[in-house]
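Known limitations

Files may contain more than one protein. Parsers should not assume a single record per file. Below, a two-record file is shown to illustrate correct handling: read the sequence, read the token line, then continue until end of file.
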Amino acid sequence: MPALDTSDLDALRLRKLEQLFDAFNRHDGAGVMSAMTDDIVFDAAAGPEACGRRIVGTAAVRAAFEGTFATFPDVSWECTRHGVFGDRGISEWIFRATAKDGSKIEAEGVDLFGFRGELICSKSAFRKDRPVLPAKGAA
């Protein structure tokens, strides 16, 4: 198989980011993981470490994303822009979700990605620290 030139690989990686967020918005754990390497490293936006919370490997990362889908049945990421720069990528988005108590989260964020070949090998999430919006009718 002939080697891909840089522009072809960048285009494939950009398409991979689009497919990834389509899968996130379908709440499709298998689809999300199909964009990632088996040794994926995901640094969540929040957690006890400087990197947030580091989650490693397909099973653990999939469980984390599926936990988000279960906690917030309407969760979505409205992507405003994707970019690929060699083996790095970035996605800008607005995270929207409603908790079971009716409170809402709506905040801008970005993901920084690392690629190995066409697949994502690292994802580091950053989200604005905006207060949760109370449920309608809550004091």
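...continuing to the second record:
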Amino acid sequence: MPRQSLPIGTYGRITSKRQPNGSWRATTRYRDDDGITRPVHKFGPTKGQAEDILRKALTQRSGSRGRLITRDTKLTDLADLWLAEKVLQEGITEQSLDLYRMEINVSTDRRASKDTVKIKPALGALRIWEATTSRIDAYLKRIVLNGHREKARRQRVILSEMMSMAVRHDAIDRNPVREVADLPRKRQKPRAADLETLTELRAQLQAWVDGEPLDGAPAYTYGPKRNPRVLDVADVELGTGPRPGEALALRWSDVDLDSTPARITFSGTIIRIKGKGLIRQEWTKTDSGYRTVVLPQFVIDTLRRVKAEAVATELDLVFPNRDGGIWDPHNFNRLWRQARGEKFAWVTPKTFRKTVASLIAEQYGPQAAAQQLGHANDSVTKRHYIDQPTEAPDFTAALGNLAR
């Protein structure tokens, strides 16, 4: 009968033999990580000491296998190991890493709320084997019930990747987060702006630039004049459908007003990196976001005027801030809320993106709209951006029989 194979990382029966010089040799078989069983022996002045020395060597041999993660590893340590692995991942952005750290670690900012739910303080004391599906499911549902649906979704992604790492290290056999109940999405119908709304909105934006009082914004009386570039950014967004960060990242080197037809290329976006501030990221949110779009005449007119009024800056941005640097998206959004007033409180830069998608889809189809918006396919475009009902086929030939 063949000898039964040892499990990896274990050893067989220890045998000892007295040597001619009076010392003892303790011997056993050890199965290494490569699956090969090898003899291991150690010497000692006595039988007991030789066996003790051998057992110590075997323990060290087993410990050198590099198992940083076991079933008893705490989630706080697993989170650190997962983040360290993420840093080495090709293509990961600093913005994504900051987002992961923000959901895992307690903020050191004194202004941060102490009640904000973070993974480490909430789950960090659990060992991997204690992080069961039921515990994680209940934890995520509590976050949703407290009104933080997107936070729950982000933390589910992080926890799932952490537990996948534990599976890869043989700490557990399956990922408990995979069986967590689906987190409900907030159903929100895409709402585009019609031509009448856009005409009224544009008139209101111009009134705001001119210093007139609006609902939610008093009349201009003193201080820096209202920034007319808010209206210009809105025109470019309405005529091309970029993500807000893509519009503010547009450079004059991306603009070709002399070609026929005139076009611009969206090649980057504005992001904020912790410890570094605002930067122009040299790529868009997705690979499909790197795109060239043709310009309607009103956008051409806007960009020609902006270029004629522009002062050359090192960053070459079409829409810099007053100092020639990057226009902070938060500052732009603050001005936008003032300019749109209470009447158009529902209109955001994303509304323009939905308007572009809906108009293009109506005439050219959803795939064309997806290409304009920089989506890899039209599924996201149809679900979140196109404001039109699904059109059913003509079944009147069958339905007409109901009246006979």
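Parsers that stop after the first record will miss the second one. For reference, the second record is described as follows. The CA atoms of residues 44 and 50 lie 4 Å apart.
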